[in-house]
Amino acid sequence: MVRQMPEDPIVRNIIDLMRGAQMNRRALLRGAAVGAAGAGTLALSACGGGGGGGSVEQGDGSAGSIVWGNWTYYLDFNEDTQTWPTLDEFMAQTNISVDYIEDIDDNNTFYGKIKDQLQLGQNTGYDTITLTDWMNGRLIQDGQVQELDASRMPNTKNLLANLRDSLDVDPGRKYTMPWQAPASGVVWNTEAVPDGIKTIDDFLRPELKGKVGMLTEMRDTMGIIMQGLGTDISGEWGDPEFDAALAWLDDAIKSGQVAQLKGNSYTQDLETDTTLAAIAWTGDIAILNSEQGERWTLEVPESGGVITADSFTVPNGTTPENKELVEDLINFYYEPEIAAQVADYVWFVTPVEGAREAMEAINPEQVDNPFIFPDDDMNSRLHGFRTLTPQEDKKYTEAFSKVLGL
Amino acid sequence: MAFTAFSATAAAAPHAPRKRSWTALILLAPGIAYMLLFFLAPFIQLVITSLQAPADTGGIGDYVAAFQFSNYAAAIQEYWPHILRSFVYAVIATIAGLIISYPLAYLIGVRLRPYPMLQGLALILVIAPFFISFLLRTLAWKQILPSEVIGTDFSVIFGLTYNFIPFMTLPIFASLQQLDLRLVEAGSDLYASPVTTFRKVTLPLSMPGVVSGTLLSFIPMSGDYVNASREFLGSTSTPMIGNVIEASFLQTQNYPLAATLSIILMAIILVIVATYVRRSGTEDLL
Fold first, then answer.
1. Which alpha helices (H) appear in B178-254, and where do they start and end?
2. At CB < 8 Å, which residues of chain A contact B?
3. Which PROSITE patterns did the record assign (chain A) (predicted)?
4. ipTM value of the model?
5. For a surface tag, which of A205, A249, B25, B88 has the fewest beta carbons within 10 Å of its beta carbon?
């Protein structure tokens, strides 16, 4: 029910401002950063898609409602109407209401937030989440997620063949379904760093001291450094290769060269010029550039970037009814036209076959964008971080954390 | 005073009827239940967790029940610099807070006493920042302070001082608000200089407020993990012990380490506070 706005123009103004602030994208990102700093209790439900303003029809929610936890900058968003166009379309088509919450900032931190419920099989507060596949592997091994019903998701036949078996503990994707395949590369402020970053040693140039940022996602940061030092991260490697890369990072941090180590909130440091060069996720930079006038250059280095997949999973605590609604949602996002619409905004490798053809109609300029539809050159540069054994995972995660000062 | 008053009453009524003790017990029951449920039970759980050993699987977050007391020695050996840094930060920030808060509380509690309106306004100004989230206020300082300063010891201590100033100001204000100005007047009538009057009259009478204020600031400061976090005013060279505990619980999922460090932190705070209160001669506050 739409409530009548008060007559008083001042009060109206205040309400308008508050609504605007609630849905402002920058505010969402800041909120996510705050969440990352340990404020797990800070609820960000204000940014739920179901609560968005604008004029797009969102259905009546009579078919049920689900909660979707996702990363920031990870779903097409219309700044003018302050709406999520494809999500609104899904809600209008199905009458399923989706509470869309962008509060995943870092796989480990987010897992830490919901692990107790996961271990007890209780409701986590999310019907579906899109963590990264290495973390999904852990959830599958621990039996904490539900098997998806492929017969309810006919569109998932469109999943790119190379992603079908890319998660070794989930061949054929019974428990997971890729949402996007994010790639990480290097970014620099085009004006302040005219020579750019071509190799990892360029991060160590004296003029960049204190202005270099890296991600707290171990696999992205270590993956790029290890490849910079000549290791094939998807092949056979062990402690010596990891330790050499960690020593490189440790030196760079101790010398003050690398000053910022962040989760998804690293984009704020780029915006404020606190960081001039960094390891970054490709899509984030595309969105920043589109919002702030192409201030940054992004490249996947010759030595190699890291590619993985963030996939939908349904935690055990979700009810069977809501699992079905999630399957409807997944099926919807596997329509090539919808996938193309999302890819046009988020700029990550789309996992949906046919999205490239659909992009012709949506935005022909993006058809040859290698960050969405990698060409041979891009494919040769992007590599997946090999799956770690539980012991390696623990050892490397703790060693990485120590280098971050913790 | 509280303890003395209690024992005096007990001495005066040695043969209090048995029924009364039952009444007291019933009245105390909710408090005891609260302590058992929300302090003792979690604390026991924390102790059990702190003694766990890694499981054979060796994976992240996999630990089994054990009596691995060596966890404590290992935690201290590995993280004593973080523990030391936390307490150094907290002590400096507490002193800085006291230096700022005492004159402020004096102004509000004594000088503005004849102007209730102004006094109320000043108090609101002290409390007003509390209407905004702790996290957002700290994040705001990240925008205000020069980027060269962010991530240094200074920025973290600055953040701690700023965030806990109301906890220092309000108890001191409460003490000074009750200060009988006739005693100050008597001091000057007896030819004491303003400094001597302050030292001999005002300060001793406001000591309960100073002690409360310093404790209310120091304890949460020692365990704080927001200000020193890399996301806020800290960097990789400033993590406090709270940051290590947070990362151990949420990122590396090393629960025994996190629990061990929590207990060590708690024990050190307890010793420091008990010593401080004893030295400041205000045991009745405990």
1. 181-189, 194-197, 203-223, 241-250
2. 30, 33-34, 36-40, 42, 106, 108-109, 111-113, 115, 138, 253, 259-262, 265, 272-274, 390-391, 393-394, 397-398, 401, 403-406
3. TAT
4. 0.82
5. B25
